[in-house]
Amino acid sequence: TPLPHPTGDPPKTHTQPRVQSAQTFVVAAMVKVNVKWQKETFKDVEVDEGQPPLVFKTQLFTLSGVPPERQKIMVKGGLLKDDGDWAKLGLKEGQKLMMMGTADAVPEAPKEATVFLEDLPEEEQYNQETKAYGAGLQNLGNTCYMNSTVQCLFSVPPLKSALQEYAASPASSTQSDSSHRLVLAANDLWKDLDASASSVPPMRFLMALREKFPQFSQQGEGGMFMQQDAEECWTQFLYVLRERLRENGVSTADSAIQKMFGLGLHTSLKCEEGDETIEEDSTALTLKCNITIDVNHLEQGIDLALIDDREKHSATLGRTALFKGKSSLTSLPPFLTVQMVRFYYKVDVQQKAKILRKVTFPTSLDLFDRCTDELKKELESPR
Hints:
Blueprint: E1 30-37, E2 40-48, H1 53-64, E3 72-75, E4 78-79, H2 86-89, E5 96-100, H3 122-130, H4 144-154, H5 157-168, H6 178-195, H7 203-212, H8 230-244, H9 256-261, E6 263-271, E7 277-284, E8 287-290, H10 298-306, E9 310-314, E10 319-331, E11 338-341, E12 343-346, E13 351-354, H11 373-380
Parallel strand pairs: 1-5, 8-11
Antiparallel strand pairs: 1-2, 3-4, 3-5, 6-7, 6-10, 9-10, 12-13
Helix pairs in contact: 4-8, 5-6, 6-7
Catalytic activity: Thiol-dependent hydrolysis of ester, thioester, amide, peptide and isopeptide bonds formed by the C-terminal Gly of ubiquitin (a 76-residue protein attached to proteins as an intracellular targeting signal)
Pfam family, one: ubiquitin
Protein name: ubiquitinyl hydrolase 1
């Protein structure tokens, strides 16, 4: 029994009319056709008339290898367009269509099977990660100077190739001097750094280096080998390489080392006691960075090293006089070596002393302003 309304009047009932929406569904027809292409006939290819003809062309691409943009399909009224209307074409079941077009070349199988990193032995997997930098060198007792030199040179790909060519040359088998043994030891060491998954003991290279340059065999108290200067090791080793690594083993040919590391310098000097000038051209394998109390950045040290004040014989005065000037770069190598000049000779104690001053350097070194005008013109376009 319904409860009485508070006002005493019966509640009014509002009836809302129902609205029934009508939806029309169009079912696209599926028609099977036969497509003739060259000597082949693709039978019962389904055509979904609810999809644009481009979808049909994609189906034919999977069957024939002819890309859709190259397909010419003959239909009623001309060629089938990518956005054509199937309804206007009036396809019939089993209708034959003609297709023209050239298929893409079938991709060739790789000559060598792909080897994935995870399929390699564990040691080789580790080696792949360090291959670009070498496996590392063991310190054989104060040999960090040598190890740092080797690691820097190992990062120069053309040097690796030059060492391999030297070791494989016929002339190499007739050599037996200490320079030859040092170059062969370097080639073997480069191979070990490439192949090893752990640090390499450079014993053979160290012995060959000490044989060629006995100063690296100096021993201190207790028979321990003394620390040496990396720059001296670099210079001496490159001197041997420059003499040995020549094209076809000809002594008069250009050295591979000069091509990799050589830079050209032009020096202009003026006599302090007159107007006499001297112009000189020279080459070097390193660019110096002199360090003084005022040098905080690499560029400052390079500019300081390019200043060239020295005493020379004056043809005008007939005696030695002071000439002042500076050097400019006439050519730059593919691999530029910059030496921080951190050692100097102390006359009072008659030994080398190390400069410990901090010198910052950029990740990208721009030497444009230190080049001659001729070299600047060559560099302007690439810049």
